[in-house]
Amino acid sequence: xxxxxxxxxxxxxxxxxxxxxxxxxxxxxxxxxxxxxxxxxxxxxxxxxxxxxxxxxxxxxxxxxxxxxxxxxxxxxxxxxxxxxxxxxxxxxxxxxxxxxxxxxxxxxxxxxxxxxxxxxxxxxxxxxxxxxxxxx
Length: 137
Hints:
With 137 residues, this protein is mostly helical. It has 5 helices and 2 strands, in the order αββαααα. A two-stranded antiparallel sheet has the order 1-2. Strand 1 and strand 2 (37-38) form a beta hairpin. It is globular and about 50 Å long.
C-alpha cells in the first residue's frame, strides 16, 4: 500500500471514528451530569455504545493499515480484535481491553452512570483512535 493510500485510509477511518466519538459526547450531554453521576442511564448506555463503535472503526482502519482483514464474511468479535492487536502492539491491547470493559460491558450492558468511569472509557477509546490520526502536511 502506497503512502498516499495509507493517508487516505487514515483520513477515512479517523474521520468516521471521530464522528462516532462526537456523537457519543452529545449523548452524554443529554444524560445530565449531577455531581459524580449521570442522571439518565439510557443516554449513558447510548453514549458508551457509540464510543465503543467508534473505537472499533478505528481498530478496523488500524488493522487494514497492517494488511489484516477478516477471512470471507467472518463476523469480527472482541476476540478477533484482541488476537490481532496482541500480535502488533501489547500496550494497545491493554487500552483495548480497558475500553471494552468500561464502554461495552460496564457502560453499555450494565448501564454504569459514574462520571469518572465513563470518562476513563472515553479516554481509552480516544487513545486508540489517535493511533490512526492522519499525518498533517
